[in-house]
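Data card: per-record layout.
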Amino acid sequence: MFSQILIGAASSGSGKTTFTLGLLRALKRRSLQVQPFKCGPDYIDTRHHGMAAGCPSINLDRFMMSEEHIRDLYTRYTANADVAVAEGVMGLFDGYDGMKGSSAEIARTLDIPVVLIVNAKSTAYSVAPLLYGFKHFNKEIRVAGVVFNFVASESHYSYLKQACEDAGVEALGYLPKQTDIEIPSRHLGLSLDEDFCFDEFADRIADLVEKFVDIDRLLSISVSDKSAISCEEKCPEKTAYAPLRIAIAQDAAFNFVYEENIQLLHRIGKVTTFSPLKDSFLPDADFVYLPGGYPELYLSTLASNFTLLQSVREYVEEGGKLLAECGGMMYLCNHITDTDGTIYPMAGILNQAATMEQMKLRLGYRSLNYKEYRMKGHEFHYSRIVSQENPLLSVATSFTAKGIPVDTPLYRYKNLLAGYTHLYWGDTSRNKWLTDFLFNLEK
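The structure for this 443-residue chain is written out next.
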């Protein structure tokens, strides 16, 4: 037996992440083994989850993953957990096509009860029809209770509780209006500043959750049976391929990763990490992974690390296999221009430039057709590529989740693949492109 809940909401901006972080930290304080999950393709919330809970958070995404893979992930990562907490994405029923890809679809697939977070700012009894609608809209979704956010006072909460009684949804508590439990924002979402005191912040939210939310009741109404299959029996075994030396960029500038992607690389070979900000040379490697992140915030440091830039350039020119995503791809360009128009030289491997000037958001799920492969992932960035003389052309055709063509590029140079898409390859039923790239690509 264990408790499992999915934190959903009526809409974005309701406070799902704030409540989830506070609950994770409060459960950790109780010495419970808590396993966090994140619905959707977000790679920033998962890092916050990991810091709050003390263990990696796992993405559950119906567009990038098969249903079988989602079930397998959930079984494996909850095998030793006392509590599983999944944070939803957007509103509970918001998907890329109706309910497809929504938090509700994950809740239905895994039979997880939902706790709604409702923004109670400037409302009271009017939440009754909203709650009634969420409870009865889809009988396959179990709305177990509600926690209100931005509550002005105990008197305000009394009106909300009355609404819950009449709507037939249990009130589990609330978070009061407080400005000191807001995470600083950045253009890609919630901040991951190294100087942000996250532990102090998480403890502050946990204090409020413990004071104003009935955690014991929340856990009791979400108790479920758990499979007797052990993690050791379910965890994928090491691959039969020859072990690879794998180097992953990991520092404040490059850290947007999917945990299961990294775990698969550990099963394929021996993984080491390096920092483009601090290290002088690449580790010896058969494959290098440059994930996305915030390179635009560290351009001076990245540009002045000449030896590492040269090391990466030599590795690629000599036929080394490298995958670069978004910020990692920008790092391989001739230069990056910041928002003020200052130009910083980069690795000069891809004959193009990236700029943060006139920032415009590009986001959405992407399917890339490359050769005989179909690669899936998510695009989320504000930068854009500026072509140089003899510009690189995309080697893939790209589509949105609804099959609409889009100009998201995938570049190929020697044994380098790079593009804006954050690719997911943890689902072994859909990652043949990766294994072929790693093991069968001719130099």
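Known properties of this structure: Confidence is low (pLDDT under 50) at residues 228-235. The chain is about 30% helix and 30% strand.

See the next section for split statistics.
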